[in-house]
Amino acid sequence: MKKKILVTGGAGFIGGNFVQFMVNKYPEYEIFNLDLLTYAGDLTKHKDIELESNYHFIKADISDRKRITDLFEQEKFDYVVHFAAESHVDRSIINPEIFVITNILGTQVLLDAAKANNITKFVHVSTDEVYGELDFDPTTFFTENTPLQPNSPYSASKASSDFMVRAYYETFKLPVNITRCSNNYGPFHFPEKLIPLTISRVLNNQKVPIYGNGKNIRDWLHVLDHCAAIDLVLHKGVVGEVYNVGGHNERTNLEVVKTIINTLGKSEDLIEFVEDRLGHDKRYAIDPTKLENLGWKPTYTFETGIAQTIQWYLDNQEWWQQIISGEYQEYFEMQYSKKF
Ligand code: NAD
Ligand code: DAU
User: Fold this and answer.
1) Which superfamily does 187-218+250-279+302-326 belong to?
2) Given 36, 140, 220, 316, which residue has the most CB atoms within 10 angstroms?
3) Taking the model in full, what pTM does it have?
4) What does the pLDDT read at residue 1?
5) Cβ of 88 less than 6 Å from ligand 2
């Protein structure tokens, strides 16, 4: 019998790339993409795999206990890779409650279902934001032993879910791993996040909002390097362990935006410094030694990855133009009208 892998959030950015990666790499697995299709989820990205016999889609809410319990009993999944979440920090500042429901309660519902069905491995996809922020000293990094000190409602909800995953390992011996990755970028990144927001606005000759002075630092990782890391942790990760994922690609936000503008041959006059994000974390930077020792190595530098990503957005304008012309406009108005 083929092994069954449940991927939650597989209609979103990273989960979507992971689903495609797994369907193509492992014909011997059956991949089940479970997603509620919130504003961040769309299935058009899967048109190349939707007819593959090892791909299945299930529309469901991870916080719907009955539905999730029934599904696990019915399908008897072997593995769970859990991406589904509310993922945008700015939205968590506007409305924290849905972050508590989806990210904490939803994770706990999945853990209960996994426990009741003796799954082989539960990989919880978390974030470096649970560690809080670093100062600008370039010799300091987040390790797996850095204490959790989340600063936004988003990162607090992710840290809470991490604690719940840890508790199910310690208390019930559920076979888990937690991965904590730095900022991803690449194909199908939803255009509310800095890189796709910048590419889409620059291509439309619109101003690009940079929060504060643009000196905040993020550690950028191409989404396919993240997918390879999760694949490795799923198969080789030591049960109960946490693995940080990042590729030493630190850039200030201003550097990132200028790189995109210059690659597209547009004017830096498009940059507009706007009111800062509340509680804006200064710097994230990952020490990936533990994962490297497991056998992971990123394949993209920031330079190769951002060039490929910009080209992807040029080649796939229909995908993102359709998103930004819909309900996204209401969000943009709410988030930015007082900033510009
Ligand atoms: P995303 O917002 O692009 O996608 C989230 C997906 O989850 C969407 O398809 C959405 O429909 C689905 N979803 C939301 N609520 C749901 C619910 N109640 N039930 C079922 N599905 C639901 O997010 P992303 O950027 O792809 O992030 C995926 C995961 O990776 C998240 O857990 C996030 O915390 C984590 N992460 C993201 C990054 C990053 O840079 N984007 C970095 C590290 C970790
Ligand atoms: O570090 C991992 C995290 O990376 C993930 O856990 C989150 O799900 C993901 O959204 C991302 O969080 P960030 O807050 O770092 O990403 P975002 O793209 O929103 O912002 C990146 C940086 O750019 C941050 O310093 C804020 C800044 N920014 C963002 C937006 C949307 C701007 O200056 N202007 C903007 O309009």
Assistant:
1) UDP-galactose 4-epimerase, domain 1 (3.90.25.10)
2) 220
3) 0.99
4) 86
5) yes
